[in-house]
Amino acid sequence: MAGVRPEYVHIAKDGDRYVGVVTLQQNEQTQAMYHQFTGVLPEYRGRRIGLALKLLAIQTARAAGVPYLRTHNDSLNGPMLRINRDLLGYQAVPGNFKMVCSLEKGRS
Asked: What single string gives the DSSP state of each residue in 22-72?
């Protein structure tokens, strides 16, 4: 994927087990970075691993000298919204909306 480099991917481990990951992608035109993905295994959530990974991503972006860092958030993911908005200072801006149509049986 364009703009993703190995030094923009950080992994959390518990011994030999991979338990979390964060990925950054740099936009070549703006030189800004997109915080593309943060993931922590369900049984490791609530231990601030996601926050630690996001802080490491911010440190990486600052070291790269980017002008800003942006991310997206699932509106139903309260824990990540708390990290992004309350703890890290991300601010909501106008953007895209995802619309979903359920194709379950019995629905028209």
From this structure: EEEEE-TTT--EEEEEEEE-GGGTTSSHHHHHHHHHHHHHHHTT-S-EEE-
Look up residue 83 and give its two tokens.
Answer: 């990290």
When the pLDDT of each residue in the chain is averaged and rounded to a whole number, the result is: 90
Give the Cβ contact number of residue 47 at 10 Å. 14
Q: What is the CA radius of gyration of the chain?
A: 16
pLDDT tens for 60-98 read 999 999 999 999 888 888 999 999 999 999 998 887 777
Going by C-beta distance under 8 Å and a sequence separation of 6 or more, which residues neighbour residue 75?
81
